[in-house]
Write a structure and sequence with these properties.
By secondary structure, this protein is α+β, with helices and mostly antiparallel strands. It contains 14 helices and 8 strands. Helices cover about 55% and strands about 15% of the residues. The longest helix has 27 residues.
Length: about 400
Amino acid sequence: MLVLAVAIVTVPLWWRSRRIDDDHKQRNIAIARQRLAELDAQKNSGVLSEAAFDECYRELKVLLSDDLAAEPAEVTSAATQGRWIAPLLMTAIPVLSLYLYFTLGDANAQRKLAAQQTAEQGAQDIEAMLGKLVAKLERNPDDTEGWLMLGRAYSYLQRHDQAAQAFAELYKRKPDDVEALLQYANSLALARDGRVSGEPEQLVEQVLRKEPANANALWLAGMARMEQGRLDEAAALWHQLVPLLPPDSESLQQVQAMLQSLEQQMAATSSAAAPLRISVKVDVVPAAKSRADAAQTVFIYAQAIDGPKMPLAIVRKQLADLPVEVVLDDTAAMQPGTRLADFPRLRIVARLSQSGQAMPAAGDWLGSVEIERPLGSHPVTVLIDQEIK
């Protein structure tokens, strides 16, 4: 849609015909009016807030004011004039549209806009525009609107280091302004490979102290908490964000998906952190019991199905103790630091040993059962009923 809007505005500028200076001005005024009508339609449809509309309107005036105020000394061709204005608008309109990204928090908007134009198109004109704006700011460094425009232009071009520098100048002059704080925090995070922790997070916290229900700040603060492994705090921040987003919006769907993923991670972490205790009931078939001595050793142990074959936890009993119920947990681990909870699938084995040795041998009897988490509330039952030949 943006490409179409740019084409509607710029293609007529390339139409070859002779125009006088007054016609040149009238055409530019018409272009500005057309863009203003588009902004007005976006405001009426609810896409742009009143504040966002006012911001875009001011930027449109600044971008076109120099050209509308110019007084050419002689008649020039529309082809020459059009070629000068078209690259300006092909850059200006996407840059103005960037405001939607920063206002609505659409994390994909910038990439969508960048995909609509090639890197080569109008590159020299863009650099010239940026150069003029930089020169203007050198002459008037307290022009906060200029720093805001420069930062947004650099952000659109994905030159995040330069965007951060521009927004730093804006923040220096408007340290209490929420927009300046958010722009600076966002550009700093992008310049640091998307990491919000550190200085960007500190800026975001300033915003939340001023506006606890600021959607962009809640999102960025949640990202910082995620990076730090503070998943419960990230979830709490994003739960506050959900009612602030438009129903059925893409932003809401993204936040809900992130919350679902986050809650799954927290559940897995909680499950992994809790020590695993497995209650095991062991009995033996009469045939094995009648052929063995009551003092013979019974090894009851847990073994990883997908992992080391060495028992993870083991308990020793005697045949005379059967039937018996035991607990396998980390206190019965064969090696310090081994955790039953680290293995989702386990084999529970009970073996009646003739020799009393840990290694299975012919003549031993055993039984086993495979389990996986989450475990039920009932003990695992193992019957020793197989003779090793």
